[in-house]
Every structure is written in structure tokens, then in C-alpha cells.
Amino acid sequence: MIRFTLNGRTVTATAAPTARLTEVLREGLGAKGTKVGCDAGDCGACTVLMNGNQVCACLIPAARADGCTFETIESDSADLDKLRDSFLRHGAAQCGICTPGMLMAGVDLLRRNPHPTEDEAKDALGGVLCRCTGYRKIISAICNTALDSVVGQGVGAAVARVDGAAKVAGDSFGDDEAPDGALVVRAVRSPHAHAAFAFGDLAAFAARPGVALILTAKDVPGRNAFGVIPAFADQPAIAESPARFRGECVAVVAFEPGTEPDLAEFPVSWSPLSAVISPAQAETEAMLVHADRPANRLIEGRVIKGDSTTAFANAAHIVAGSMETAFVEHAYIEPEAGSAWMEGDTLCIRACTQAPVMDRDDTALILALPPERVRMIPSAVGGGFGSKLDVSLQPLIGLVTLRTGRPCRMTYSRAESMASTTKRHPAEMQGRIGCDSTGRIVAVEFEGRFNTGAYSSWGPTVANRVPVHVTGPYLTPHVTARARAVHTHGPVSGAFRGFGVPQAALWQETLYDELAEKAGLDRLEFRHLNALRDGDASATGQTLKAVGIAACLAALRPHWQRALADCTPGRGVGIASCWYGCGNTSLPNPSTIRIGLSRQGQVVLHQGAIDIGQGSNTVISQIASEALGLPLSQFVLIGPDTALTPDAGKTSASRQTFVTGRAAKAAAEALRSQILRLANAGPSASLTMEGPRLTVAEGAVRRIIDLSALPPDGHGYALTAEETYDPPTSKLDANGQGSPYALYGYGAQMVELSVDSDLATVRLLKITAAHDVGRAINPQLATGQIEGGIAQGIGLALMEEYLPGRTENLHDYLIPTFGDVPPIESLLIEVPDPEGPYGAKGLGEHVLIPTAPAILNGIRHATGAKLTRVPALPHRIMTAIKARP
Amino acid sequence: MRHYARPETLAGAMALMADRPRKVMAGGTDLYPGSGAQLDGDVLDVSAIPALAGIVHSDKGLRIGACTTWTQIAQSSLPPALLALQQASLQVGGRQIQNAGTIGGNLCNASPAADGVPPLLILDAEVELTSPRGVRQVALDQFLRGPRQTDRAADEVLTAVVLPDHALTGRSAFIKLGARAYLVISIAMVAARITVAEGRIVTAALAIGACSATALRLHRVESALVGASPKDAAAQIRSADVASHLSPIDDIRASAEYRVEAATHLLQRAVAEVLA
User: Fold this and answer.
1) Chain B closest-CA separation from residue A124 CA (Å)
2) What's the angle, vertex CA A599, arms to CA A593 and CA A605, rounded to 5?
3) Residue range(s) defining the domain that contains residue A512
4) Closest residue of B to A58, CA-based?
5) Does A608 fall in a domain?
6) Tens-place pLDDT, residues A18-74
């Protein structure tokens, strides 16, 4: 028995002496606000104050807690509350998984130093990692910098996120709720890239005390294959021999609660097989990862327009080059976690996800259940960035509960999360770009090979998106672009913020710098000259409208000229652009939103779009509020929950603000029309609601609708509207011609940096980011996306490289820390798109795309060094400096 | 089976060690990563033993208790010769780790990239090892045998780091190089301590970490510095001399070639910082 003071109260707990304090707090005392991200002291999510000093609770033995005083996020101390408020006002919490640790480290600092400088804040909070925010708004919240006051609540207002109070209190993520008595589920995973395996005496292991159930592939009742694109579904929930990548699940064991889940003696024997590791090897070797995919090719996407061969023959200037990227890990701070239970005949699964309906349908297929017998209840999501689009543990815990009838829970370790879930595709890209004597681009030829790993996941999307976008947002009359996804026995490559476009942008935007030089043009002016304009045709022949790239570049121009003038030896400035089509590529992509007006007088928004931190809960609400004409404060959010919310699609492809926003706008407008009809009022009438009294005022005429007097409709509301929006796109033909997206967003970023001439280390000084968002529904959330995307772009450029078996933790796999993201100036450009809600365009992925190439262009400007491989680690930069012509 | 004990005296710890050797835990920051829900085996938690805490000056020199945390080192009033150690203290993980991790644990963990080692090597540090069989003192460079290997016997506890008086002179500096700003595991790190008298360098102690199996002193480079005037010091640090000491490897953080080149620059900068 240990006894200590927790947030001012004496508590006692029973725990093994070396149990981690996180376990004692979370499981023993139910204080789940303290989060676990790594169990290794690498991420700081579990930061608590021990006798007033910040420590990682995951590294504190329970026995040592005895007699100590602890403060956690559950504390109600006045200074913590004040800091929570500052976090909310500054938009310092996105997904919220790091927020408790940030707040506790912040309180530790502010008690020692009430008025810290930026550097002092960074030093004090440097032990906590954040993958969403890019840290800048956290620094502002800690230093409590001044903010513009927020005007109104509707479209365009920088209101604090509607789910913010939960974030700063310690939100409820996948591991934070489970039914009492839940079995604890663990997976047995392949330690090899490619290996045959055989089980020993499973019955004997199953008979061990504490073991409730063992599942292998033969226990999967339905189709043992999942995949985000149904036609390509190939990944088993539990693999049969052989395992195709390190980390693949081959068996599942459920343990009784309270026993120690120990798989050390699980009876499985491994016979490692030779493995296909590199894509080059994959394309030439006889060994196939999947017997039905010759040459290990999953798919090739292509765009062919005009006659690039002839165009190059006539080009005045041509540049050619290659670019190579690595596996990149999403490194959200929340490892996959969830729980499952039965409610009557319905299997309920509560887990972190970006795509609850896809999860439901895939899980139902695997479990041989009709979809309506599976209910997905998404938890708060502690970061996703694309990887939580694919199912992970949902079918595993679903199967355990289905087989036992008992509730169960599962939480991936950090290593398990990194080894078993998807990565950004490593890319090997090459080609050439030509322009005429005036600097106008005439042609692009591109060939990309993308390592899609062991299973298909989003490989087809990457292969299709890259050729469409590889020109960048520049008018290019002649294009020949091919991208193929190739299987290896590597980690499964899937979706990661940009679907291959960030890799391709590294190739094209670094070459454009060289081409500008050859043409004798300033690098920004070269891009501005070639920028797509309204009415131009894209590489796929789509006539574009509301094109904001020239406006973004123009907005950067004064900053660019100032930065060039500021340059001294060792300093450089880089620039790069982006464009990105929002939504699925040439595929249906609908969202449905339901809004009810309750008989008590609340606007109930059934919002199925998953907010992974980007802010869709807030943005969709603001759009609905604006369109309906009732204030945000009268809104109640329901969901997401597949039993309670209509399908708002997946949170990917920068589609939620656009697609679900359009659905929300349509539903709100439909509801407004019903109200106006009831009141016999015209479209300009204003609405106010006090309890069930809904007042419709038009000039001097006021009509009152008593909502409580209206009969409940099929949803139990006084009035309900439900609307669907599906963006208009067209199929691409064999040459990739067509209109793959209904709407595109645009942007350009400029990086100022210095390179240490001896050590070849890069110091980022400032990033200026101009993004055409069409209409900034919530400017603070928009700049939050920009800053967070830039941080991931910095990681892609300078430090991130996932190596299976070597970097399966957060100290060998480097993501940017507090000190790695420089000041960011965001310029929100608004070129409204008629297709977007109030003109809004998607933003979430765009913001990552230009950062890495702008950094490489800045390094080249500073040093002359040309990098053709990322991450640009210091030794690679030094090699490039020495290789200068 | 597991057993855990947290004695409040050194004698109590020794009695446990005499019974059977056990895993020693100080801050725990290196033991928990990679372990399961709790630690395996028999654990001897030495964090409650007063004899292992605090920094005191004795007849043997400056004695830093093995369980002194990085934060305690950073916040102590210490001679300028220990500035490198204090600078290193603020770069071991984040502040959470600095509040829990200890100098003794850092040495016993014996990572080639241990932040504490170069600043202690330039102070001619010795470690005090206590076992039921008695107490012995070993030079730090003899104690560190290789990656994750030390001279500590299974029944010994590292009880203190002892810095001899002769090494507490001069000023020092520490520089750590990595691919990100915080939470860095070094590509390379250097520490330098120099004493100057009458316009000449009298003693020079230089050490480097993460460029060989264990961190080490660079005696040939040090010799070249002795007698030099401070303004010529950097020029005396030649890459060939530096390289002759090192056996770096290519790993995920950097190439061997880069490490040697960076090491020379880092040493020049550290020396310049000391002499500034």
C-alpha cells in the first residue's frame, strides 16, 4: 500500500513497487488525464509535478511515490486554470494528447518564473513533444502574448475550439475508457521482415492462468483481409504464415484483467525467409510479396498531356534531377488504443480513428457481421495524420469480444505502434523540366517509384495523386508523369498528410530553382510567371477556377525581397509552392450532416466528421451556425458515432472543411428554410432562440414558434434537416485526363535559414507562409494547421527517417522539438472558390507540402549544396557541400 | 520473480548485495525505457540513501554523490572548471529527465553517448564503488569498458564521483551536436577545460563522446595546446590529431567521416568558448 498526496488529497493505492506511476494514477486511481505516449521518457506526455518538480510519471516507480506530493492535470489550482485559459485563447491545444504534459511543464515554469521569455519557455517545455501544433501557439500561451480580440462567432471568427475545454482538462482518448472487467488484449508480432512461422502447443498456453483466449488466422470468421480501398483489400487482420513485414500481427492473446500480460513464452517458431527490401530489388527479383502482383507492382498512375518529347526538343533550358525520400512515421503521441463490448447483438468498439464508417465496414467484413451490428464510437484522437485511416486494433478487439462475449481493451506500445502501422511512402523520383527562353515552363517528365511496403493500404491513391500534382501549381502544356507503387517486405506505406505529393514537391520545387537560375529569373518571379491562373488547364486538362497561387506568391514578394536583402554569407532564403486537390481522386466522396432543433430549444449538430485536432468540430459548427442564423453557443455536438451520426466520410484529403462543411451548410440552410416557412418569413429574417421560444423577426414583424409545442419527428426533434454533399469530379481516362477534384487549395512558403559552414547544421530563422484558404472559417485554427504542417515539413526535410527495427522509439526516431520550429508568419489569402462553403478550401495537407523543398532551396541558396535525399542530416549536407561544382 | 528494496542506509544496501547481487536503480530514467509494466528481477533502489546524495568538498577532492540529479548539479554553486558539467546537465533529455536522472546512473548505463562522461573525463574523475567487500576508487576512463560495459562488479554500487583538487582549476565548456534542438542523442559532444597562466595555456583537458566505443580524452590534442597562447589555441587543434584518437562509426545519426570532421570544429569552439 502506498500513500501520497494527489492534487491536495491524500490517496492510497495498491501497486507493485516498480509499477510505473502512470499505471498507478491511471488504472489505480482513475486519474486518466495523465497520458502515456512512449513509456520511455521520450515524449513528456505523462509529465506531472512531483514535490513541485516536473517528472515523467512513466519513469517513477510506485514505491517512490509514497509520501510524496503530486499535481496532475486533474488539479484545480488557480495558476493551472489560468494557463488552461491561455491555452484555449491562443489555440495551443489541437488534438490534446500532449496538452496535459504541456500544461504541467508550463505550471512548473511559471511558478519559478512568472514572466518567461520565449527561450525560457522552450527550455522548460523542451521535454514535451507535440506533433500537431508546431509549438508556436504553445509558446504564445505560456508567455501569454497579446491576441486580437475575437469578433462574433460565425464564419471568419477566431473562436476558441468548441471542444477545447476537454482538451485542456485531459481529454478521453482511446486508452482512457474501458468497461469494468475488460480483458487485456495483446498481439504477437513478427520480428522479421519476411518469415514463415508455426505455432507450438497453443492449448497449453491457453490453459495458463490468466490467459482467456488465443486467436490466430483460422479464428477469423469472415474475410481475413482489410484495406482502405475495397478493390485492393489484402491485409490480414491476423496473418497466416508467412508474415510479410516486421510488426505484422500473427496471433492475439486476451488476458484476464489484473494478470500480467506476458507473451515471452508464447509458442511460435520463426523461420526467417529472404526478404525484398528495396523497390529496385522488388522490380527485378523473382520473389513476389503477393503472388498475383507481377514484378511486385501494385499499380501505376499516369498523366500524359501533349507531347513532352517534342516540347523538350524545343525547350530553351532544361534541368534534370532525382530525389529520394525515406519512410516517415506519423509519430502521433497517442498510440492506437480502444475497447470493445457487446450491447445486445451489437458489437461496440470505441477506439481512436480517422474513419469510423470505413472501420465499421471493414471490421464487419472480417468478423462476418452485417455492418449494422457493429457500432463505432470514436474516442478523442491523439493525432492521426493519415495513419489512423486504416484499421489497426478494431478487428482484433472486436473478435475477442465476439468470441468471449466479454468486454476487452487493447493499447499499442510505442514500439508496436511504430512497427505495425503505416508510413509515408519512400520515393525515388527522377525526371526533367524545361522552359522557353522567357522562362515559361513548357514540359515536365517525371517517373516516381514509391515503396508501398507489404500491403496495399493507400498505395493506389499515392500512385494516382502524384502524377496529377507533379507539375506543381504552374501552367505546364506538356506532361508525361508516371508513379508506381511497388511492394516490398517493408512497413505498409499508407496515407500521410499529402499522399505522396510532399515527396514529389521536393523533386519539382528544387528543380524549379535550378530552372529559374538557367532562365535568369528571380526564383519567386519565375514561379509567379508560371503560376496557374483562372481558366488555365491543369496537367489533367481540368479548367481551373479560383486559383490563388499567384496571390500567394505576390503576398510573399515583399518578404522575399526583404529576406534577400538581409542575406549575409551562410544565410539563405528558399521558396516553394504547393497545390492540392481536396477530397478523393475521381471517386465519390460524400458527407452527410443532420441538424435537429430540439423541443427544448437547442441546435443539435450530428457531426460525424472526426476532429483529429485540426478543428472540424469547430469549423463545421461555425459554418452551420452562420447558415442557420443561430449562435454557436446554442449548439450541442453529437458524435461522431456510427449509431448517432450520419456518414461524414473520413478525415483525410483535406476534405472536411470543404465537403462536410458544404453538407453542414446545406443542412443548416434546409433547417432555416423550414423555420422560415413555419413563420411565413422571407430569407432575410433573423432568428433568436430563448429556451423553446424561437423568434423569427423580419423588419418590425416578429413571429414566435414554440418548439415544445411541435410534435417530435422521427429523430425526436421539433425540426430536423439532413443533407448530403458529394463533390463533382470526373473519372480520369487512360492518360490521366479529367477533373479529379472539385476544388484545389494553393500556397507558397518562404524559409530563411543559416547553415553552419563547419558543421553543416541548419538553423531555421523564420518561415513565412502564404496559403489560399478560399475563406478562413476560423483564422486561428487555420494558422494552427499551417504551423503544425510546417513542423512536419521540417521533420521531413531535416531529421525524420524510419528504419524498421532501429528507430521504433521517439528518441532514435527524431521529430521536431520546441527548439526546431522558428517563428512563423502566416498570410491567409482568400480567393473564394464557388464550390467551397463560403468559398472555403481545404488546408490540412497543403501546409506541409512546400516546407521541405523550401528548406532545401534555402540550403542551396546559402551554401550551393544540392541535396537529392532527405532527411538532410548534417553529414549529408556536408557531403553535398563538398560535392559543389 | 521480483524483489524490490529501497534501503535508507548504505549498510542496508550492502546487506542486500551481500545476500545476492541485484539491479541497481537510481533515477530510473534508463531502466524503465524498454521494460514492461514493471521492472524485472531484483531491484535495489538506492535513491533514499543519504550517503549517495549531495555535493561536498572533502580531503579527496569534490565528491558528487551518485544520486545527485542533473538539476541539482546545474543549480549548484560550483567552480568554473565544472561549467562543462553544468552545461551538460541542462542537455540531458528534457527537464523531466534532469529532475530524475542521476550522474551515477548515467555512468553505470555506459552509453557511448552519455552526456555526463566528457565533462567528467576532463576533470580526471574517479568513481567510488562500494560493495560488501569494501570500497574502491577507479578512474572513470578505466571504469568505462565499452558500450554498456563497465568495471562495476555485480555486487557493487557506484556511490560517488570524486573530482581531484588538481583538476578543479581553470574554466570549462561543453558542446553537444545533434540533429534537433532538444532531447538530443549526440552525433558528437565535446568538453574542454583549460588553465591559463601568464598568457600561456598551462593545462588543457579535452574529451569527446559518441565518436568511439566510450568517450575519451584527446591527449595528443591536449599536448599541442599546452604552451600555446590563447589566441593561437584553435589553430593548434588539428584534425589529424583528433582523428588519431577516434574510432567513430557510421550510424543512423551521422557518418564516421562527418563525426571526425565535426569533432575538430567542436573542439575548436569549446576551447574558444573557454578562453573567451
Assistant:
1) 6
2) 20
3) 423-585+734-882
4) B32
5) yes
6) 999 999 999 999 999 999 999 999 999 999 999 999 999 999 999 999 999 999 999
